[in-house]
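The freezer alarm interrupted the setup, so I double-checked each line after restarting. Inputs confirmed:
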Amino acid sequence: MNKFFTNTLILSLFSMLLFRTENLEAVDGDIIKIRFSHVVAENTPKGQGALLFKKLAEERLAGKVEIEILPDSVRFTDEQVLLGLLFGDVEIAAPSLAKFRRFSKSIQIFDLPFLFDDLEQVHQFQTGAIGKSLLDSMLSRGIKGLNYWDNGMRVISANRQLKAPADLANLLFRIEPSAVIETQYRSLGANTFVLPFNRVYDALKLGLVDGQENSWSNIASRKFYQVQSHLVETNHSFQGYMVVTSVHFWESLPPEIRDTLKQILDEVSLEVNRSSVEKQRDSRELVLKAMGKDRVYNLNNDERAAWRSAMQPIWEKFRSEIGDEVIDAAVGR
Ligand code: SIN
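Predicted 3D structure, all chains:
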């Protein structure tokens, strides 16, 4: 067991003690307070999903629950929020799937470059037995996955024209804390720097990093196009989320409230995924207009095949960490 897991385990045990007091208070009192933290703007699929969850939960469980949304990293970055759940500082979060490696290695499947061609393939995997089982892959560490939410596919931006994999050489990319994403860039001769999402714009503006990867809606809502000159439409991996809570909080809820909250989350997930498609399309339009169409490179089939074959060896590299069963289910779909 590495040091992080030992520490996480200790923190989980400690949080159980904390929860004994906090949750009893929450459940026995008149109103159960639920804080939902995320790191993106409110006009994004996740931001809108959190607001819709608040609206429906406070309507259907009026007088029983109160939802506080903490958007835009106002309280926690994604790097902090999982421990925040365990400590009882927050009840629900929806970190990007690239942020879970320390709790579940299998969730790294979503970062493997060019494994999923589009959202349809991602959904096929998520709704299959293995995809569903990943929601429970952190239970022993005190985290329960409730739903997957979409935010489109990732594209890459930088201050240099990017077309072929070789164009990334020697550039420094801001990445999420994902070993797969780090390997993806290193295998192309680029360097990486992990930064929380709320620092990316400034890091690009100050020239601390040369580029980044993200969904269209994150690039548009954070105005990364103002501080990046070029973009390549790779659609190389899935920018999605897992809505998570702590096992202790979830199990401390009265069953009828828990079931209603889960039903609401299921409905909200459908709406997030539906509206995300529109949001990516509108955000793409906005970015193309702002950057200029000639600055955004669209790969043709041959070029995409070249990117894919440059990156496919990464799947095998992570096979033992992610698990044969998970990789095979994603590849076979
Ligand atoms: C998010 O979409 O929640 C953040 C993604 C990132 O850290 O780049």
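Quick read of the result. The pocket of succinic acid is lined by residues 39-40, 96, 151, 176, 197, 214, 218 (CB under 6 Å).
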